[in-house]
Every structure is written in structure tokens, then in C-alpha cells.
Design a protein that fits this description.
Helices cover 42% and strands 21% of the residues. The chain is of the alpha/beta class. The strands form three sheets. The chain has an eight-stranded mixed β-sheet, with helices on both faces. A two-stranded antiparallel sheet has the order 4-5. The chain has a two-stranded antiparallel ribbon with strand order 7-8. A hairpin with a 2-residue loop joins strand 4 and strand 5. The radius of gyration is 18 Å and the shape is globular. The structure holds adenosine-5'-diphosphate.
Length: 267
């Protein structure tokens, strides 16, 4: 019998100081996450792939050097190099935390496995993930810069990895850790009355979007409608669960399939 494959995202908002826009890891959340992964793996056998958001380690550089519209100057090339180093730093930190828990890891940088053309994936190789899992390692990929046929380099987000691995490896479980309990009727950091939506499925999707539209908080990325559309595209019909990684105990529960406050997505 094949072991269950779990795809876990550690969101940039939870493992880095994304909200403060600092080039800093949230060591507490990271170390606690590593501990809970180790505990869950003791209770149950499963294969795990880890995708990490990089928060400010990515987007601060991308903005500063203008790295997502074609690389044309020496300065931009320097920026690409710096961004890759910064994103690799996040991977190193995650690996360090996991190794403290005696877990075996394998860094699979985005620029090894993924190639873009005009910001779109043309190659995403999963062979190395399969090999790592066979060796009993936890593969780790972060958002980073990848080669781009037209633009030279462009940004690959952690969400791209989620989408590609979901499509190609069909994980039995997809769990997305972030810094709020799930998807709300509006951004819970702005609207105090926002309500957590426990489940989003085909039946209530329209209603959920309508609710969100009524709220005052509409963010630049298209608010919740945009968020959900992107998520649905990534998940491609697979179920997923969004949960709060800042609350100790949540990750272990999610990994073991126990009940917790969260949003289940069944689109
Ligand atoms: P991550 O970095 O963990 O991938 P994001 O920063 O992309 O996560 O998204 C999480 C953030 O989205 C939350 O911190 C929250 O403030 C914001 N947000 C905006 N609208 C919503 C909503 N309707 N429900 C939940 N979170 C929302």
C-alpha cells in the first residue's frame, strides 16, 4: 500500500515576519511547526511535501529591483541573485528547524524544478520529489525566482508549487497553514465582524462571494473573490483545508485529520 501523500504549505505570513515586512523568520512558529510535524509522523506514517511562502524575502526584492517584468539590466541581475539567496535562506531555516527534530529533508529549489515562459509554467519536474520521498526525506520548495524563456527570470510563488504538485502527484491531503483561521466573509484583520466560513463548496460559493462583495474591505488582489478563484484553480478539484499555523496544536491536528477551526475547500 502506498503511504498517504500530504502536501503542506507553510504560509509566508506565518513563518516570516511578513506583516512587519522584516527580513526575519518567525522562529517560534517555525520551530513549533517542525515539532508538530515530528509528533504527527510518530503517530502515523505518511509522506510529506513542504511548500514554504517566503513573504518579505521574496516580494521586497521583487519590488525593489522590478524582477517580474523582464530582466534587462545588470542591477536587475544582481536583484535576481539576491532574491534567490534570500529565498534559499528561508529554505535553510526551515531545514534547520526540521533537522533539530531529527527529520530528513531535501531542498528542491524552484529554479531546479520549474521553468517559466512569460511567468507561466512550462516545465515542473516532480521526479526529484518522488525520489526524495522514496529515500524517506521531506522535500522542501519555497517561492523564488525561476528561469523564464521570454523574461530571463520571473517569480515563482509557493502557490505555483502547490498547483503543480497537486496536479501531477495527486496528494490525498492538502493543508494550507496561514496566520488566520481560514477564509472569512472579509479580511479578519480589517473587519472585526468577519465570520469564518467553515466550508466552501460548489453549493455555497456564490453566496460566499456575494457576502464578501458587500464588505468594505476589498484588497488590491481582488479580495476574497480573487483569492478563491486562484485557490480553486490551484486545487483543480482537490479538497484542501486552510488553518491557522500560529495556534499551537493546529498543525498536528491537521496532519492527523483531527477536527480544528478551519475552512475546508471543496470546489
Ligand atoms: P500566506 O502568506 O500565509 O500565504 P496571505 O498573506 O497570502 O497568506 O493571505 C493571508 C492573509 O489574507 C491574512 O493575513 C488576511 O489578513 C488576508 N485576507 C484578506 N481577505 C481575507 C479573507 N476573506 N479571509 C481570510 N483572510 C483574508
Amino acid at each position: 500500500m502506498m503511504k498517504e501523500l500530504v502536501l503542506l504549505k507553510l504560509g509566508g505570513s506565518s513563518i516570516t515576519k511578513k506583516a512587519d515586512n522584516k527580513f526575519e523568520m518567525n522562529e517560534e512558529v517555525l520551530n513549533n511547526s517542525a515539532k508538530e510535524i515530528a509528533q504527527a509522523l510518530k503517530e502515523k506514517e505518511f509522506n510529506l511535501i513542504l511548500i514554504c511562502g517566503v513573504g518579505p524575502f521574496g516580494h521586497t526584492n521583487v519590488k525593489k529591483y522590478d524582477l517580474n517584468n523582464g530582466i534587462k539590466t545588470k542591477n536587475q541581475e544582481k536583484g535576481v541573485e539576491k532574491t534567490i539567496q534570500d529565498c534559499d535562506f528561508v529554505a535553510d531555516k526551515v531545514i534547520e528547524a526540521l533537522e533539530k527534530q531529527k527529520l530528513k529533508t531535501r531542498h528542491l529549489p524552484g529554479y531546479w524544478v520549474c521553468k517559466h515562459d512569460n511567468k507561466k509554467v512550462i516545465v515542473y519536474e516532480i521526479e526529484d520529489y518522488e525520489k526524495a520521498l522514496q529515500r524517506g526525506e521531506i522535500p522542501i520548495t519555497t517561492g523564488t525566482m525561476v528561469k523564464d524563456k521570454t523574461l530571463k527570470w520571473s517569480v515563482m510563488s509557493g502557490d505555483t508549487s502547490i498547483a503543480q504538485i497537486t496536479k501531477q502527484m495527486k496528494p490525498q491531503k492538502i493543508i494550507l497553514g496561514t496566520d488566520v483561521d481560514g477564509i472569512y466573509t472579509a479580511d479578519p484583520k480589517i473587519e472585526k465582524n468577519a465570520k469564518l466560513i467553515k466550508e466552501i463548496n460548489k453549493e455555497n460559493l456564490e453566496e460566499v462571494i456575494k457576502m464578501a462583495d458587500k464588505s468594505k474591505a476589498i484588497d488590491v488582489t481582488g479580495g476574497m473573490k480573487g483569492k478563491l478563484e486562484k485557490l480553486a484553480e490551484q486545487l483543480n478539484g482537490n479538497e484542501a483545508q486552510i488553518f491557522n499555523l500560529l495556534i499551537p496544536g493546529n498543525l498536528k491536528k491537521a496532519l492527523l485529520g483531527k477536527e480544528l477551526n478551519s475552512t475546508k475547500i471543496k470546489l
